[in-house]
Design brief:
The chain has 15 helices and 28 strands. With about 650 residues, it is of the alpha+beta class. The chain has 3 domains: about 250 residues, Rossmann fold (3-Layer(aba) Sandwich), CATH 3.40.50; about 100 residues, no CATH class; about 120 residues, Sandwich (Immunoglobulin-like), CATH 2.60.40. β4 and β5 form a beta hairpin. α6 packs antiparallel against α11 and α13 packs antiparallel against α14. The radius of gyration is 28 Å and the shape is globular.
């Protein structure tokens, strides 16, 4: 009887203790906001995410206060720090760090060149966060890529072109459920043109459901900050990452506007709380809580190469073989040529009357109609640049068959640039590289002493392990095969779904792969563009036509498929190319810049671009008393993009000696 009494008492105590256990209080989460402090000096030049210096100056005073006021409505412990004063150790004191701007790098970018020729060899990117940074972080737009790229984050820079609406949004996701209540208002809006025209957009209706995140965006042409999207292909090929939403941008519908990798969360939309809808304010607060819940998650599949091709690229290439794809291109260029010719003639008439021309009109004077590519030229442009194209030529039937036949065996080098190669080793076994049987088959070859070199190539290519014997490989495989997954964006390797079970090394490049180069045919010896540096820039001084006159000549050589921007109208996200000369005493500018004629930008009839080879010339007058050895500094500021990616803008400076 007494025993039963104590058992009952214990049960009551247990029930009481369970009832008294406090529920999780989201307001207890501590938050650190990192951005520009309005009390600190404002940068002389607006960050690239702003299309207007004036708008940046205005928001500089209000953005941090707006975030602080907003965050304190949800969380009890909120602090802020100027991004230029942030150090990584501060994040250890908070549950979640919000990065709204880039922080000061702990290591500047380093470019390695050949000591004899000066040719580009490699680049070490700037490092903003230490390798052991593992704190829960929410990134607003572009800081996600800049701060996380060296850590292996999948929150890369696909495009700085995100406006203010989301689409293809997973409304059943936790951040739309709570803890702060939200009922997203979904309305049909016109489908963005880049989605309708992209290779994977054939099934898109004229309107699609969208959710309004911000009340203003850069498309409103008021200079507001631009959001960023990450690449969607391969984003979810590892269990540590998830896509929550896409958004209105200039890229494919798979672009990631809201997503998570490990304990890093991307909120690509750029609006401050002053411009968030009431619904977005709730969801953003939920995203902070969700990031906190994943605070102990680590990256498992690390992405170190933004430009690695996944097998989805093969599907895109198939589209380029279609007549529909070609005719859409022809239609665009014919329409563009007609419109631009009309505008150019109107400007010439205006100039003939003596009227003053604005910047855009001056640019238009150099307009030349773009040649309409033949079907063969179109195929050469889109197919011929691939490493395997010699096997198929430009025969569309052969190309399609090749892509379908080899899709299971395609892989990309860890440092590859949107290029797929056929793994003949995997093909000889008839096993797809994303089928775990490929590892079992390779180990079996080792165990049987057959085709050892083939087996070693496969294990080297598709794992980051390095065992000495077949027994060690087999023991590893048997232990972990049930937890393995294949990541393409992470380097075409098999990894273990356990962040502590994989070696801390990067995927390995095939031995013997030789990069192809061509000799420059320019009179100015420019470095060959590379996948890391698609734009090669150089400059020389040449003698002028008159006494004491010289000409500064800046030249670019742009890798095929890439471009930089000649003119960007108000309301667009891209960065216009600018050039300049810093002159010493006794040297003066003469006239204006003489530039290569721009080309059209497909899908954006008002944007003009430079591609291939271009020249920027400006005359200077040198006084007789200027001493020999005096230097002139010239520079080119540009943003490089192709159909798939946009690099952050950069400034190339060159010193010339008189």
């Amino acid at each position: 009887m007494l025993k039963s009494f104590f058992i009952a008492l214990a049960l009551v105590a247990l029930i009481f203790s369970c009832e008294q256990k406090p529920e999780f209080d989201p307001s207890s989460i501590s938050v650190l906001y990192v951005g520009y402090h309005p009390g600190k000096p404002m940068p002389e030049k607006a960050p690239t995410s702003w299309t207007s210096q004036e708008r940046f100056a205005k928001e500089y005073k209000t953005r941090m206060p707006a975030f602080m006021s907003y965050l304190k409505q949800y969380f009890n412990n909120v602090d802020s720090i100027d991004c230029r004063e942030y150090t990584a150790d501060l994040s250890a004191k908070y549950d979640v760090t919000i990065f709204d701007e880039n922080v000061k790098p702990i290591k500047e970018r380093v470019i390695h060149t050949d000591p004899e020729t000066g040719a580009f060899l490699s680049m070490e990117p700037a490092i903003y966060l230490p390798d052991d940074y593992h704190h829960a972080s929410l990134f607003i737009g572009h800081p996600a890529r800049n701060l996380g790229s060296t850590l292996g984050s999948k929150l890369d820079w696909y495009c700085l072109c995100l406006d203010r609406h989301s689409h293809h949004t997973k409304l059943n996701h936790e951040i739309f459920k709570g803890p702060f209540e939200v009922n997203p208002t979904i309305e049909n809006r016109p489908t963005p043109k880049p989605i309708l025209k992209s290779w994977d957009g054939g099934d898109m209706p004229a309107e699609i459901p969208m959710w309004e995140v911000n009340t203003e965006g850069y498309h409103d042409e008021k200079g507001y900050r631009i959001g960023m999207v990450s690449r969607g292909w391969g984003f979810e090929d590892s269990p540590d990452a998830e896509v929550i939403s896409s958004g209105v941008c200039d890229k494919q519908k798979t672009a990631v506007a809201i997503g998570r990798h490990g304990n890093h969360f991307l909120w690509g939309f750029a609006g401050s709380p002053d411009y968030m809808t009431d619904e977005a304010k709730q969801v953003f607060a939920n995203a902070i809580v969700y990031t906190y819940k994943h605070k102990d998650d680590k990256f498992i599949a690390k992405k170190y190469n933004e430009r690695i091709a996944t097998k989805v690229y093969a599907d895109e290439l198939q589209f380029y073989t279609t007549e529909k794809s070609y005719q859409e291109s022809v239609k665009f260029y014919k329409s563009w040529n007609a419109d631009m010719t009309k505008r150019s003639n109107e400007i010439k008439e205006k100039q003939a009357k003596g009227d003053e021309l604005n910047e855009e009109e001056k640019m238009m004077l150099g307009f030349r109609p773009q040649p309409i590519l033949t079907r063969e030229q179109y195929l050469q442009k889109n197919i011929g640049r691939n490493s395997w194209s010699k096997e198929t030529g430009l025969d569309t039937v052969k190309i399609v068959n090749f892509l379908k036949e080899n899709r299971p065996y395609f892989y990309s080098q860890p440092d590859g640039f949107y290029d797929l190669q056929v793994d003949e080793d995997a093909k000889s076994l008839g096993i797809a590289n994303d089928d775990i049987k490929i590892l079992d088959a390779a180990i079996t070859l080792l165990e049987g002493g057959k085709d050892i070199e083939k087996a070693e190539r496969l294990l080297w290519r598709y794992t980051i392990e390095d065992f000495a014997t077949a027994n060690e490989w087999r023991a590893w495989f048997n232990k972990y095969q049930s937890k393995m997954f294949f990541t393409q964006s992470g380097g075409f390797v098999w990894l273990i779904n356990d962040p502590d079970a994989n070696p801390d090394v990067k995927p390995r490049k095939d031995d013997g792969l030789v990069a192809r180069t061509e000799e420059s045919k320019n009179e100015l010896k420019l470095d060959e563009p590379t996948h890391a540096e698609p734009v090669s820039v150089g400059a020389i001084l040449v003698e002028g036509e008159r006494e004491g006159e010289k000409q500064v000549v800046i030249k670019t050589k742009i890798m095929e498929g890439y471009h930089i921007y000649a003119f960007v109208p108000a309301g667009e996200a891209y960065i216009k190319t600018e050039q300049g000369i810093e002159l010493p005493k006794g040297v003066k500018l003469v006239g204006s810049w003489d530039k290569s004629a721009p080309a059209p930008y497909p899908g954006k009839d008002k944007i003009m671009i430079y591609k291939d080879q271009n020249t920027f010339k400006h005359k200077v007058k040198v006084d007789a008393n200027v001493t020999k050895g005096t230097t002139i500094k010239c520079w080119l500021y540009y943003q490089c993009c192709n159909a798939d990616i946009c690099f952050p803008p950069k400034k190339k400076e060159i010193v010339l000696t008189l």
